[in-house]
Design goal:
Helix content is 82%, strand content 0%. It is mainly α and 38 residues long. The chain has one domain. The radius of gyration is 9 Å and the shape is flat.
């Protein structure tokens, strides 16, 4: 799953650490990547 997320996922994870408000969007992106990306 992490391989499918790639760099955008890392950016979102960094966003979580600096801005908790982005956590929802990051989780949504990870869910989409794991669902549609494998």
């Amino acid at each position: 799953m992490l391989n499918n997320i790639g760099l955008p996922g890392l950016v979102m994870l960094l966003g979580i650490s600096t801005n908790p408000f982005l956590q929802f969007f990051a989780l949504a992106g990870i869910a989409a990547a794991s669902t549609f990306g494998g």
